[in-house]
Design brief:
single chain, alpha/beta, 2 domains, 26% strand, binds adenosine-5'-triphosphate
Length: 316
C-alpha cells in the first residue's frame, strides 16, 4: 500500500458562492517589477462581499503594491485588477465605488480635519454634514477644526478611515489601518471592519500582524515575495489537521507518509504530519505493518499555520 492511492483522499475545499459583481475585487495575473525586484508576481485572487478579507504577509511581501495597482495608483507590469467589474480609473464617482486608506499622512498638513473631508466630499457632491457625522464616528469630533499636521499617527489613521467611508462605498481597501492606533483604537477598527462586512461591503485589509488578522478576518490571502501562498477561510486554515505520530521506525514512517502526500517534520522525538488525518495515518501505517506508539491530533495556532505555510512554500 504505497503511494497516494494507499491513503484516504482528503476532502476538496468548499466552493465559493457566486460573487455579486457589484462589489467584487478581481486581481488577475497581476505582476509589478521594479528594476530587479518582482514586488508582485503573477497574483490572482477574488475578494468577495460580506466578509473581512485579510491581506497578510511579512514586510515587503507586496501587499501595498498590490493595493496601489487595485486603486490605479501604480501601473501593472502585467495582468489587471478590477473593482466592481471595471478598473478603478474607469469609475466615474470612485469615492462611492471604493473607499481606500493607503497612506494616513497623505492629507494636507495645513488643513483642518473637517476641511480635508469637506473638500474631498465636494468632488462628489457630498454634503459637509456627512463629514461632521464621520468625524464624530471615528472619534475626531473634538479635534475636527485642528490642523492635520499636528495629528498623531493614530489620529491620522482615524481621519484616513473617515475619508475612506465618505462616499459610503461598497468596497473598502485599507492598508495596515491599525498602525499607530492605541488598544482602544485597535478594538474600534476591528469592530468597524466587522460591521462594514456585515453590511454586505467588500473589505480588504492588509496587515503583517497575524494576531490581528486572527481576530478580525473571515478570509485570508497570504502573500510572500509577491506570490500568493494561500487563499483560504480562517477556519479552514486553523482546522488543517496536524498529527503528532511516534513509532520505532521513524524513517520508514516518514517515507510512507510523504508518499501519501503529507508534509512531515521532526518534532519532539516523533513526527509532525500535515495533510493527513489520524485515520489515514493509522490505515497507512497498518498497511505497511508499521507499529505506532503515539497518534495525536494537534490544532495549530494561526501563527503556526502561517509559519508552516511560508516555510513549506519556500522549500517547494
Ligand atoms: N516604488 C518602488 N520602487 C522600488 N521598489 C519598490 C517600490 N515600491 C515597493 N518596492 C519594493 O517592492 C517590494 C514589495 O513592497 P510593498 O511595499 O508592496 O510590500 P508590503 O507587503 O506592503 O510591505 P510592508 O508590510 O512593509 O508595507 C519590496 O521589496 C519593496 O522594496
Amino acid at each position: 500500500m504505497r503511494g497516494r492511492d494507499a491513503c484516504d483522499p482528503r476532502p476538496s475545499p468548499p466552493s465559493h458562492p457566486a460573487p455579486s459583481v457589484r462589489a467584487v475585487i478581481e486581481v488577475m495575473k497581476l505582476t509589478k517589477v521594479y528594476g530587479r525586484t518582482r514586488a508582485v508576481d503573477d497574483l490572482s485572487f477574488t475578494v468577495r462581499p460580506g466578509q473581512v478579507t485579510g491581506f497578510l504577509g511579512p514586510n515587503g511581501a507586496g501587499k501595498s503594491t498590490t493595493m496601489r495597482m487595485i486603486l490605479g495608483l501604480d501601473r501593472p507590469t502585467a495582468g489587471r485588477a478590477t473593482v466592481a467589474g471595471r478598473p478603478y480609473r474607469d469609475h466615474r464617482a470612485p469615492l462611492h465605488a471604493v473607499g481606500a486608506l493607503l497612506d494616513a499622512r497623505a492629507a494636507h498638513p495645513g488643513r483642518t480635519a473637517r476641511d480635508h473631508l469637506v473638500a474631498l466630499g465636494q468632488t462628489h457632491g457630498i454634503a459637509p454634514s456627512r463629514a461632521d457625522g464621520l468625524l464624530a464616528e471615528v472619534g475626531l469630533g473634538d479635534v475636527a477644526r485642528r490642523r492635520v499636521g499636528g495629528f498623531s499617527l493614530g489620529m491620522a489613521q482615524r481621519l484616513g478611515i473617515a475619508a475612506a467611508l465618505l462616499g459610503d462605498p461598497a468596497v473598502v481597501v485599507l492598508d495596515e489601518p491599525v498602525n499607530g492606533l492605541d488598544p482602544d483604537g485597535v478594538l474600534w477598527i476591528r469592530t468597524l471592519l466587522k460591521r462594514l462586512a456585515a453590511d454586505g461591503r467588500t473589505v480588504l485589509v492588509s496587515s503583517h500582524l497575524m494576531s490581528e488578522m486572527a481576530v478580525t478576518a473571515d478570509h485570508l490571502l497570504v502573500v510572500d515575495h509577491g506570490r500568493l501562498l494561500a487563499d483560504t477561510s480562517l477556519d479552514a486554515l486553523l482546522d488543517r489537521e496536524r498529527v503528532f505520530v511516534r513509532g520505532p521506525r521513524p524513517d520508514a514512517l516518514r517515507a510512507l507518509l510523504t508518499g501519501c502526500g503529507a508534509t512531515v517534520d521532526d518534532d519532539r522525538g516523533g513526527l509532525l504530519v500535515t495533510g493527513l488525518g489520524v485515520d489515514a495515518i493509522g490505515v497507512a501505517a497498518a498497511g505497511q505493518g508499521l507499529v505506532l506508539h503515539e497518534l495525536t491530533p494537534h490544532r495549530a495556532s494561526l501563527e503556526q499555520a502561517y509559519m508552516e505555510l511560508t516555510t513549506t512554500k519556500e522549500r517547494a
